[in-house]
Write a structure and sequence with these properties.
Elements (H helix, E strand, L loop, with lengths): L6 E4 L8 E4 L14 H17 L4 E2 L1 H17 L6 E2 L1 H17 L12 H8 L3 E2 L3 E8 L7 H9 L2 H8 L5 E9 L2 E9 L3 E2 L7 E2 L1 H10 L7 E3 L15 E11 L2 E12 L2
Helix pairs in contact: 1-3
Length: about 270
């Protein structure tokens, strides 16, 4: 699945004042190269830390679950099948929402150049799949933004709403983080291709990598590569940052290469 690189930025009291929609733009910061293990390691640690502290805000778990209900009602009205809650999408959405709060920005691509798929492949240790992401943000002093109001912002944006209703999506998760007068909602949607029988460690050794590859059916043509969306960079020997990948038929002789967990090749 393609990664949605749109940002929804809603400003103003009570979601009723000024609103602005950031249009898709070219990546301003490239993803760190696979050779730069320190950059990938630091970002993975940053995301893990945000799962514990919400970036200084507070996770609204009920709000995230209500968002799933609202999305599935909209999908049903549009004739699309419901999406099921996915724990690894949930962790990834919460990690990014916390990072947005901590660093005070509203973007899909992190300041270091990491995009939604990179986050999912760093946090999700069992899923082969690529997510697409919606973000809604509210700032204002007139009451707390409700999930209904935040979802309405997506409804008002054709690109975001297409993402919500996309029939191919089978799973989703939504993370809502609140601070006084502010709210960040991150939604992730995906159609997982496969699930590894055991989590692949971030620092993985040869036998763990081999077991992960052997666990996937032969028709998926599982392999190891550098992370998608990254370049190799200057290395001596094998690249230190790698990724499990698989192939999915896309019709008419076309195929999609679908990413899985990103890992460091331990000695």
């Amino acid at each position: 699945m393609s990664v949605e690189r749109r940002t929804l930025l809603a400003l103003g009291a009570g979601l009723a004042a000024d609103r602005a929609l950031a249009q898709p733009s070219a990546r301003s910061v490239p993803a760190p190269p696979a050779a730069d293990a320190s950059a990938w390691t630091a970002y993975e640690a940053r995301l893990r830390a945000r799962l514990h502290d919400a970036g200084g805000g507070a996770f609204d778990g009920d709000g995230g679950r209500l968002t799933l209900d609202l999305v599935n009602r909209a999908r049903a009205a549009a004739g699309a099948s419901p999406v099921a809650w996915h724990e690894e999408l949930d962790e990834t959405a919460r990690a990014h929402a916390g990072d947005l709060v901590r660093r005070g920005y509203v973007e899909h691509i992190s300041p270091e150049g990491f995009e939604p798929s990179h986050r999912f492949w760093l946090i999700g240790r069992t899923t082969i799949g690529s997510p697409s992401e919606n973000i809604a943000y509210h700032r204002g002093s007139e009451g707390r933004a409700t999930p209904q109001q935040l979802v309405q912002l997506w409804r008002d944006s054709p690109g975001h709403w297409r993402n919500v209703l996309r029939p191919l999506h089978t799973h989703a998760a939504f993370a809502l983080v609140r601070t006084p007068g502010k709210a960040w909602l991150v939604g992730l949607f995906a159609r997982p291709l496969a699930t590894l029988p055991e989590p692949l460690a971030f620092r993985a050794v040869g036998p763990e990598i081999s077991r992960a590859l052997r666990s996937l059916s032969a028709d998926l043509r599982a392999s190891v590569s550098i992370p998608q969306g990254s370049r190799l960079g200057d290395v001596n020997g094998p690249p230190p940052v790698l990724q499990i990948t698989a192939v999915r038929p896309a019709g008419l002789g076309a195929y999609d290469v679908i990413g899985g967990p990103i890992f460091l090749a331990a000695a």
